[in-house]
Amino acid sequence: MTQCDRVLAALERAGERGITQVDFLGPTIDGGKPITRVAARVKDLKDAGHSIVVDGERNSCVVYKLAAAATPVAASPPPGPPEWWPTQQRAASGAYGVFD
Q1: pLDDT band at 69 (very low <50, low <70, confident <90, very high)
Q2: Nearest 5°: phi and psi at 54?
């Protein structure tokens, strides 16, 4: 089991309590060898697509938690001319209301 696997498993088990660097110093929360660079492993997990957030501080260390799955928000279309403009002006204006 890699350090990333261990950190991810600890995040899943910890739930709302979260984990800190202190949890991976001797004795560790999972009984394995100490992990001295938990922040680096969290970054690796984020880079791999896991949603992890920092939520406060405990024992002078940041608390990491798995973020709840969020529904992606659709991107808004670019602003266009107002609907009350005459059709010819809207067509000539392009997306930003600038006349040619």
Answers
A1: very low
A2: -95, 125
Name the percent of the chain lying above pLDDT 70. Answer: 67
Domains, the chain, in order of start with CATH, read 3-66 (1.10.10)
Answer whether residue 6 shows pLDDT above 70: yes
Residue 59 structure tokens: 């024992």
